[in-house]
Amino acid sequence: MKRSTFDTILSFLLGFAWALLVLGSFLVFKIASLFGYPVGLLATLIFVFWSLVCILLLEGLNLYKERSEELKEQTRLLRRIVKSLERE
Hints:
The chain is mostly helical. The chain is about 90% helix and about 0% strand.
């Protein structure tokens, strides 16, 4: 099955978001820990929270797209069934 450009971009963005979460949290902790470990930990937790929100939004967009495609397919099948029943 051929993937659309939107699927490719969405997959890339999800991978990038996960990589940003891992590397970004490390960098945020290293930079913010210069002001103390509690500040570094708090900054890292805030960064992880917002990164996970972004990932959830992208996953939600992916699920919405898949659901929309599935509903289109079901509608197409139901119309074919109705047409075949009307002929009989």
